[in-house]
């Protein structure tokens, strides 16, 4: 019923069905939950008691407040909390504490300790019998709706302290010091007379520093539990915990170690099983038992010999002596070591031989170990070699027998090393180095021979190897640096230095051994970097008994200087223009002549460059690289990008030191300064070439003074007046003035036009054309006459008009264009006019008649003028002129 009411007030569809799902989802309608430990809580008088209280599933702020109350009424499930409860403390109300608890709360004996927002602990410093009773934890409501429980109670019972802990003296320990390896026992008495059923937890602890470490414990559940450092010793039985009678707990340690030194104590805690069947610790006490001092076993290990030297093939004899203060049953283990370093702690020390605690000696052919007496061990190494030079030391260990039959290492010491030098029998020999071939010039071969002379005292197992060195000559105040060219191993494997490794692989430097006592160094092509001093070192190696090789002697030869007088390379390049006069359309031709000095077997690479007078968009301010020819005569076009003249430039080798450059069909844009850039190459060995020196020629200028030749055109016809139907021949003749190009370098484009007017006031009409390729093009004609155009000589072109008609009259002219190299225009159009008037037969008498009439009229007028003048001035007196007569004369004249 209560659940239904709560769900109804929530006004939530989810909770509206909570009654139906009460048996399935009870947690959805469960409210605030306050929990305390399950009671009763059994606590010992005088100990500190902590009672936690936790709240969950609440609304409101995350940090909750708590109130603690106390009642001395015994807890009963059917009886509610007593009304005479006393307020102890509150986390939010300072005035909550009752008067009888105020003093204990103010002094801190009773306090509240917050662990989190929803957990608070009630802490009672020293609980008393009067504190036995019911404790209630209450949380004030912060929820919007009251739901769940807001308090919880727990009963606390206080019992009297019945736990006693005491220590017993160490058996046979006077004073409290032990020798390493001895055994000792420690005892602790612990008992309780508590009225409740409690269990004891006994722990033995050792303090060697600031903290206590657990040795071995017997838990309240009757289990033995060793500490982390004593796990192995507990398993082996060296550390044990026994119970003697009912109240005594004994710690037994056999074979005491230095780590066992320190203060020992026994810590006992009392445990009781709570209402929830969990174990709770109700009190703990400890007692100091003893301070133990472990005196380590004294072990001295030393060698009877100091630093010594032994001749090769002799025997090495060493003795290791051992001293100890150990008594009783013990055994000694000895191990002999060898190391190339004086530090005997190095992990790379090599074991020579050993004898274990059972006196068993490890096997070895050339090394033997004997036990002279109880404290002396003899090492003998036969047939020593130089590889036996080093440091020898022995290591001794003392082992004691444990009660379970196993052996335990008590102490271990290592002797100081003794230095042993094995003296090799050095052979006596001399080394002579000479230059069998010395260079007189760069790229000449160099050959050095290093010989072994006057060999004495050399055994059959001695082998000679060589090392070649180079020394660069420096000034007196500079540091001399020697460079290793190559060295030879004992198996005559050649190891070449890094700088000359590539040259040796290419065969430029050859290291060889032509004879038993001779080593050779040959430089196929000596360069300037090879100038300097050379010397060789002959090393003598001796084979050891393990088939290894040891260097026993080195002899250095006298240096040999490889030097030749050096002269600077000289290179001269001269450019020559083959044609003194040049114009556009011609072929430009120039040669580059090269001469060099102090270069052996040179080859040349040539590059043609141009400094254009006209700006180039791709290279407006720089030099253009046109074409190049390398030292192997491979041609390459550099920056030549004119697709119309892709093969317009040619560079070829005429002689060993002469090169010719040609540029066909030159244009005005090619004007500029042309040079030859020549590089001299010298053989560098292995088919490679080395750049020696560069040279630049004098400039050759291409300058076009005129745009091209000047030519005149004349038109000629034998009969400028023709009749209808006649054949007309018109000749266009070209005359060239100035520089005349080669006939093969010129071509013409000729076009004929006609103007159908004597006054030339009409547009010209195209008749026919002949282009530079010889193709004739005619205009479409609407009458019966026809035309043809042909080239009758290199400079003459003929136009023929067949069957002239009236439409063919007018002024005729030809227009020419001259081409050079078929692409570039040289001259503008030139033309010459010629008048052509065809006359028909019916109109043949018109012109004579008109001429006759004109001449008669002119003569008549002249006669009238003469008569008039004569009558006026010559016959003036005889004639009386009257007005009337004059009118007659006028009439007569009119007639």
Automatic annotation (TrEMBL):
<dbReference type="Pfam" id="PF07686">
    <property type="entry name" value="V-set"/>
</dbReference>
<keyword id="KW-0732">Signal</keyword>
<protein>
    <submittedName>
        <fullName>Prostaglandin F2 receptor inhibitor</fullName>
    </submittedName>
</protein>
<feature type="domain" description="Ig-like">
    <location>
        <begin position="180"/>
        <end position="288"/>
    </location>
</feature>
<keyword id="KW-1133">Transmembrane helix</keyword>
<keyword id="KW-1015">Disulfide bond</keyword>
<dbReference type="InterPro" id="IPR013106">
    <property type="entry name" value="Ig_V-set"/>
</dbReference>
<feature type="domain" description="Ig-like">
    <location>
        <begin position="427"/>
        <end position="557"/>
    </location>
</feature>
<feature type="signal peptide">
    <location>
        <begin position="1"/>
        <end position="31"/>
    </location>
</feature>
<dbReference type="InterPro" id="IPR007110">
    <property type="entry name" value="Ig-like_dom"/>
</dbReference>
<feature type="domain" description="Ig-like">
    <location>
        <begin position="26"/>
        <end position="147"/>
    </location>
</feature>
<feature type="transmembrane region" description="Helical">
    <location>
        <begin position="849"/>
        <end position="868"/>
    </location>
</feature>
<feature type="domain" description="Ig-like">
    <location>
        <begin position="296"/>
        <end position="397"/>
    </location>
</feature>
<dbReference type="InterPro" id="IPR051102">
    <property type="entry name" value="IgSF_V-set/TM_domain"/>
</dbReference>
<keyword id="KW-0472">Membrane</keyword>
<dbReference type="InterPro" id="IPR003599">
    <property type="entry name" value="Ig_sub"/>
</dbReference>
<dbReference type="GO" id="GO:0016020">
    <property type="term" value="C:membrane"/>
</dbReference>
<dbReference type="InterPro" id="IPR036179">
    <property type="entry name" value="Ig-like_dom_sf"/>
</dbReference>
<keyword id="KW-0677">Repeat</keyword>
<keyword id="KW-0393">Immunoglobulin domain</keyword>
<dbReference type="InterPro" id="IPR013783">
    <property type="entry name" value="Ig-like_fold"/>
</dbReference>
<keyword id="KW-0812">Transmembrane</keyword>
